[in-house]
Amino acid sequence: MKGSWIVKIACSILVICMVCLLYIQAGKVVIEEKVLTKREIDQELRGVWVSTVVNLDYPITPTTSSEWLKMQTDMILEKVDESGFNAVFLQVRPCSDAFYKSAIYPWSSYLTGQQGTAPDSGFDPLAYWIKKAHERNIELHAWLNPYRIARNQTEWDGLAESSPARYHPDWVIQYGAGYYFDPAIPEVRQLVIDGALEIVRNYDVDGIHLDDYFYPGSNFNDNNSYNKYGKDFPDIGDWRRENVNMLVKGLDEQLHEADPKIEFGISPAAVWASDYMNPEGSATTSDYSSYYVLFADTRGWVREGWGDYLAPQLYWASGEEWSDFTVLLDWWSDVFKEADRDDVELFIGLADYKTVDEGSGADSVWYGGRELEDQMKACKENSQVGGTLHFRYRYTASSPDIQRVLKEAYPVREQEDEDE
Predict the structure, then answer these.
(1) Which of 179, 212, 250, 262 could form a disulfide bond with 149, CB atoms 3.0-4.6 angstroms apart?
(2) Is 47 exposed, middle or buried (0-12, 13-18, 19+ CB in 10 A)?
(3) Mind listing the pLDDT tens digit for each residue in 356-375?
(4) CA 133/CA 86 separation, integer angstroms
């Protein structure tokens, strides 16, 4: 009798444990609280770009060694963490190539030294970066260049046979020393979108990020495409802008269909247009316009709500004659204020590199990190700005002046007690 009671109790406990396990596996029982990312705690974006093109930041030199690539990743992320950043924007497709396992693009020559050659031991750099960044509660955004194939003839000659440019030479246009996919071709737009979708579907990235490279210039030799696709556009500039618009809109829609939580954004050139070009432009004299030179209607994207953020690159000092940081900050703030959207954020791209490259003399506004410090304060005080991105990692890590500014602006929080 007693033995059978014990058996019944044991069976009951077993049943309860099995039911609990099933509920836990079904996601119906929360056994751990959500761990907040640093960005959620900071309540602002504190991002840093890590450039891979021509080995600017990573890797220092091309290598197939998985151990060397891992070591560099660990060192960078440790310094990123110490500097107070909460998001890394890693360049994973600098030239129609890949820093990850891709069925669309070949391995990057900047990674291993030869396009199409993989790292040893089956190593996947992007997967490792994501894992190690997330262990530190730092976001990892995949930064892509949409159209660039090769920067010069040597790179073009070194393209892997698996490059999309090899399969589709009719999609390619040479501009200056470089080679680019033609933004007008529908299949090119879908190639770029499919490449971004491949990353989102296969990797736990926090976002997809484009920079300021769209059309490489106004003298782009796309007359054949214009004659084929541009019949509804009397002005070739309007047609080119529509080609870029279709890419941006397509990325926004298809990425969010694949993952509603993914963050998609662009960091364009700061000057949409100077007011001497367009009365609605900024009070600047720069002729490097995203609207008229790169054919990217960045202001229009904000108004349409394409993307989750825009991070214009305000790479000038306050009071600079060519392009004034304060003027551009105010202009972009007004754009976002007038758009009055709660689904697109404004971040500001900052030129940390000028603290090093132009700040060696005491008479320079960039000397000692003074200009960078003032710009970060201006962004912090601007209600339209939700954070900043810093160009680029190696400068932020190696400059004592930049490190001082960052540590003052981004104090590293001590881990909270578990009881709090």
Answers:
(1) 179
(2) buried
(3) 999 999 999 999 999 999 99
(4) 9
At 412, list the tokens: 């590293």
| pLDDT at residue 10 greater than cutoff 90 | no
Cα–Cα nearest to 117, from 163, 64, 51: 64
Which of 208, 291, 180, 281 is CA-nearest to residue 245?
A: 291
How wide is the angle at C-alpha 307 spanned by C-alphas 301 and 311, nearest 5°? 80
Paired tokens of 113 = 């030294």
Instruction: Identify residue 275 by its one-letter amino acid code.
Output: D
- What pLDDT is attached to residue 14? 46
Cβ 290 vs Cβ 331: under 8 Å: no
List the 172-175 sheet strands across, edge first: 148-150, 178-181, 172-175
